[in-house]
Specification:
The protein is globular. It has 8 helices and 5 strands, in the order αααααβββααββα. With 258 residues, the chain is mainly alpha-helical. The chain has one domain: Up-down Bundle (Rhopdopsin 7-helix transmembrane proteins), CATH 1.20.1070.
C-alpha cells in the first residue's frame, strides 16, 4: 500500500499516487541494468582464472538496485522502500570490504573496525534532521511534520563519499593501478549527491511540457556510472595488489671539468 502523507512526495517529480507519477525517476533505473550488462560483457572478456565471485555478485546487486528503485518510484511503500535501500546498503558494505582487502591490503581486524565505524557513521548521518537553518538529532519545539532530512536525505550518503575519497587518496599515494578509476567514481558520486540534494530546490525550474522533472533522475544516471567505475576497478585491478613501481630517483647532474 502506498505511503500516506508527505513521505510519498519526497521527490519533485511526484505529484500524486499514480503508478507512473514519477516517469523519469522510474525509467532511469534502467541505467543500473545497463551497468550490469556492461559489467557482464567486461567480465566475459576475462580469462576464466581471473573471474571472481565478487564480480558477479556486484553485477547481480546492480540488477537488484535497479529493480528495487523502480518499484519504489512507482509504488512507494514500506516494502518497496526496503527493496530500494537494501541492495544499495549491501553494495556499500560489501564493496568497502572488497576495496579494503583487495586494493588496500588491509588486515581483517582493520577491515572489521572500518566496517563498524562506517555503519555507525551512516546511522548517525541518516538521523540528522534539518529545519529552518537548524541541524540536529532532536529539534525541540519543532513539529515532527516540519522536520526534514538534511540535503534532501543526501547527507546520509556522506560517509560513503568520505570512504571513497579516503580510499582513492590512499591508493593514489600507494600508486595503485586502481586509483584513477576509484577517483573517477568518487567524482561521479560527488556530482550524483549534488543533483540528489538539489531535487526540491530546483523543482520549479525544471519543467518540460508542463511536467516538473526535478533532478533525482540524474542521481540514478550518475549513480549507475559510479557503480560501473567501481566494478571496473575491481575487474581490472582487484585480483591482486597492483602497485606501480616507484618513480626513479633523479640522477645528480654531471659537470664537465675543463
Amino acid at each position: 500500500m502506498p505511503l500516506k502523507g508527505a513521505s510519498i512526495f519526497d521527490y519533485c517529480e511526484r505529484t500524486g499516487a499514480a503508478f507512473w507519477a514519477e516517469p523519469l525517476n522510474a525509467v532511469t533505473n534502467a541505467a543500473f541494468i545497463v551497468a550490469a550488462i556492461a559489467g557482464i560483457a567486461t567480465i566475459a572478456r576475462l580469462p576464466a582464472r581471473e573471474r571472481s565471485f565478487w564480480h558477479m555478485f556486484f553485477v547481480a546487486d546492480f540488477i537488484a538496485i535497479g529493480i528495487g528503485s523502480f518499484l519504489f518510484h512507482t509504488m512507494p511503500g514500506k516494502g518497496t522502500e526496503l527493496a530500494d535501500t537494501g541492495p544499495i546498503g549491501l553494495f556499500m558494505l560489501t564493496y568497502l570490504v572488497y576495496a579494503l582487502r583487495r586494493f588496500a591490503g588491509a588486515p581483517r581486524f582493520i577491515t572489521a573496525a572500518a566496517i563498524a565505524g562506517f555503519i555507525g557513521a551512516m546511522a548517525i548521518a541518516f538521523n540528522v534532521q534539518c529545519w529552518d537553518g537548524r541541524v540536529g538529532f532532536l529539534l525541540e519545539n519543532v513539529p515532527a511534520g516540519a522536520r526534514a532530512r538534511c540535503l534532501n536525505g543526501s547527507l546520509g550518503y556522506g560517509p560513503a563519499f568520505a570512504a571513497m575519497l579516503l580510499i582513492g587518496g590512499f591508493l593514489t599515494y600507494r600508486r595503485h593501478k586502481a586509483a584513477p578509476l576509484m577517483l573517477a567514481a568518487t567524482a561521479a558520486f560527488a556530482v550524483s549527491l549534488t543533483l540528489r540534494s538539489l531535487d526540491q530546490q530546483l523543482c520549479g525550474h525544471w519543467i518540460v511540457l508542463g511536467h516538473r522533472m526535478g533532478t533525482h533522475f540524474l542521481w540514478h544516471l550518475f549513480n549507475s556510472l559510479t557503480l560501473f567505475l567501481l566494478l571496473l576497478a575491481g575487474i581490472r585491478h582487484g585480483g591482486r595488489l597492483e602497485v606501480l613501481p616507484p618513480r626513479p630517483k633523479a640522477k645528480p647532474p654531471v659537470y664537465a671539468v675543463r
